Amino acid sequence: MARSRSNPDRRVKSNKKRSESSRKWLQRQLNDPYVKRAKDDGYRSRAAYKLKELDEKFGLLLRATRVVDLGIAPGGWAQVVREKRPKAGVVGIDLLEVEPIEGVQIMQMDFMDDAAPGKLIEALGGPPDLVLSDMAANTVGHKQTDHLRTMGLVEAAAWFAIDTLEEGGAFVAKVLAGGTDTALLDLLKRHFTSVKHAKPPASRKGSSEWYVVAQGFKPRAVTEDAPA
Hints:
Layout: H1 20-30, H2 33-41, H3 47-58, E1 66-70, H4 76-84, E2 89-94, E3 104-108, H5 116-124, E4 130-133, H6 143-164, E5 170-175, H7 182-191, E6 192-198, E7 210-217
Helix pairs in contact: 3-4
Keywords: Cytoplasm, Methyltransferase, rRNA processing, S-adenosyl-L-methionine, Transferase
Binding site for S-adenosyl-L-methionine: 75, 77, 94, 110, 134
Catalytic activity: uridine(2552) in 23S rRNA + S-adenosyl-L-methionine = 2'-O-methyluridine(2552) in 23S rRNA + S-adenosyl-L-homocysteine + H(+)
């Protein structure tokens, strides 16, 4: 099917100072309708639509009153939470510096720091009823290593949710193709009444990312001891 001349694909020319992967990424960004839509709607990233679509399917924000956003940068998910639940308490954490968002407390800190969980709950003023994690490890180019690093973050986020969530709360985390590892999936199923995988339309078709959505937290579920 021929493209309209008024809306052709924008191509990025090769440049000696730009790697081929960077050129392809830039071209993909320029031609991504969600990127343009995010700019038009005032969101900081296209990822905002992933949360909006997950919320439409699972009702994640319907009754959220205290929300933790793990890997908050650049802030698209927190913007959606504030839009949907303007009275909710929201605390986010990221290694990267994040521009302020009205009504959101932002901590620039490594979530894997032993002090991070306590600081998040202290800032939130009580246990969350929704824990969101869009964290992913920086890739090193080795598929197995990248998978293990990212799933390590997912596991840490899951344990944080299990240790802190209000009864009936929910946990959402980005995972990679193939979904959640078996052991972690079993853990979530013991602690939540519903555990499902979803790939929102805003997630690029060629991307390996999926999301695990766990709802109906059961704080008194029996499980093995958490990792030290």
